[in-house]
Design goal:
Blueprint lengths: L8 E9 L9 H15 L3 E8 L5 E7 L2 E8 L4 E8 L3 H15 L3 E9 L7 E2 L13
Antiparallel strand pairs: 1-5, 1-6, 2-3, 3-4, 4-5, 6-7
């Protein structure tokens, strides 16, 4: 596979607070959630690696043809940190973010969307649809 397309990218960095802790404990559940996000957003997974902390907590990454999608969980804090970087259509990264948030059900989300690979310009925060994900869930 040749990665011949160079296009602007979107980088999503997010901290998800007060998540459903049962979904953060073990590799099996976390990997399934991330796979669902990859599939529903039509991203292309090339490989993955996950590590199980003892007794609970997970670090995992999907290497994508578009770049990467990673997560780090702290179930004892009901917290997850995610990182999605793609050089494909931004809608794909936004969809993956939305799917993951819908699954983890955070009550508070702190996020930043960055415009990357924009030749001649600095990395900058970009504005996206306000409806991508609710800031607070009830």
């Amino acid at each position: 596979m040749i990665n011949a397309q160079f296009r602007e990218g979107i980088h999503i960095l997010a901290d998800l607070w007060e998540c459903n802790p049962e979904k953060l404990h073990f590799v099996k559940e976390v990997k399934e959630l991330m796979q669902k996000a990859v599939t529903e957003s039509r991203l292309t997974a090339l490989n993955d690696y996950f590590f199980q902390f003892k007794p609970i907590g997970v670090t995992g990454i999907f290497v994508l043809s578009q770049s990467h999608f990673s997560i780090h969980t702290w179930p004892e804090k009901n917290f997850a940190s995610i990182d999605i970087f793609t050089c494909g259509p931004p809608e794909q990264a936004l969809k993956a973010f939305e799917v993951l948030c819908n699954e983890l059900q955070p009550k508070r989300i702190e996020k930043k969307f960055l415009n990357r690979m924009h030749e001649g310009k600095k990395i900058e925060t970009i504005k996206t649809r306000n409806t991508v994900i609710a800031e607070k869930r009830k």
